[in-house]
Amino acid sequence: MKARRFKETPRDSASSLHKVVFSLLKEMFPTAVIYQEYPYDKILKSSYNLYSVPENAYNSYYLSYGKRLRADFYIKTYRSIIEIQGKQHYEPIRWSKGADSWEKAVIRFNAQKRIDHIKKDIANEANCRYIEIDYKNTDKEAVKEIIWREIEK
Predict the structure, then answer these.
(1) Most confident of the following: 1-5, 10-14, 97-101, 119-123
(2) Do residues 124 and 130 make contact, with C-beta atoms less than 8 angstroms apart?
(3) Is 58 exposed, middle or buried (0-12, 13-18, 19+ CB in 10 A)?
(4) Pick from 24, 13, 27, 7: which is nearest to 133 by CA?
(5) Looking at residue 8, what is its pLDDT?
(6) H helix runs in the chain, sequence order
(7) Residue 1 pLDDT exceeds 50
(8) Ordered domains of the chain (ranges, CATH)
């Protein structure tokens, strides 16, 4: 695990909403450790208090996807996962006109929906709150309200 995932600032390539949410989290939870891009398998391991994850849990998801899944933010103290959901989570997006076909965009979108479902399943298995922040939520107070409402459940 690279140390930069736990830095006090978001990565340079992070979306503007990611950066806003990170600063809000630091403000809302000043004493909590807020992990960025935290691996879902580590979340699951900590929920089982194990050194490895049961085969029927994360490993089957990991093997079916073929890549380590990461949470945008994880606050261990509150057992909360926060995911920033960009437009690509809601509709197919053509990232480059001409070179990127509509069919590829639809394939990527369907894959993203599957990954989102897997992440929710893992959060549920790990007994964690799963909080989604929609890219349309640009009002800081509204984002804070979403986070507080979900954490207080």
Answers:
(1) 119-123
(2) yes
(3) buried
(4) 24
(5) 67
(6) 16-28, 40-48, 60-65, 102-125, 140-151
(7) no
(8) 3-151 (3.40.960)
CB 131 within 8 A of CB 146: yes
CA distance 27 to 13: 22
pLDDT score recorded for residue 13: 78
Cα torsion through 101, 104, 106, 108, rounded to 10: -140
Torsion from C-alpha of 2, 129, 51, 6, nearest 10 degrees: 20
DSSP 75-104: EGGGTEEEEEE-GGGTS---SSTTTS-HHH
Among the listed residues 106, 10, 125, 7, the one whose alpha carbon sits nearest the alpha carbon of residue 58: 125
pLDDT value for 34: 92
Say what percent of the chain tops pLDDT 70: 79
